[in-house]
Amino acid sequence: MADLTGLARDLVLQMTRAGKMVATAESCTGGMIAAAITDIPGSSAVLDRGFVTYSNEAKEDMIGVSVATLQAHGAVSRETAIEMAEGALARSRADLAVSVTGVAGPDGGTVEKPVGLVHMALARRNGPTQHTELRFGDLGRAHIREATVEKALQALIAAG
After folding, report:
1. Which CATH architecture has domain 4-159?
2. Which residues pair with 86 in a beta bridge?
3. Cis peptide before 128, with omega less than 30 degrees from 0?
4. Most C-beta atoms within 10 A of its C-beta, which of 14, 61, 72, 94?
5. Which regions of 27-82 does DSSP assign to beta strands (E)?
6. pLDDT tens string 60-103
């Protein structure tokens, strides 16, 4: 798989040079994006905070995802990912916030939302929020989570 350490190092270096901070809002990765960033020395200048919002209640309480969104679209949806990223940005000092919510498996998949489906959003202060739908397939839980971390780090680097 990817060199997550290298990606995280590139992100920390880029954001440090730009004087920018990031926040994460994670469901299916359970804090792995923030952990990858904090593995790098100097990351305290870059990572403002990470929200692990695994349950719907955590999404609501910690980052303001609306009950109506969760009821209408579910936790694994474009709408929820966008609200997660925007909520993390609003509740932090970050310039960029990335969110991920998905079905890592091995259970929980449906025809509409199969194992390997991940919704990712990137919110920018004073800029548009972007959404990306990722479909990794049923690669296994560890690989889906690692691939999600890779895509999130890449998105932060591209946005920075």
Report:
1. Alpha-Beta Complex (3.90)
2. none
3. no
4. 94
5. 47-52
6. 999 999 999 999 999 999 999 999 999 999 999 999 999 999 99
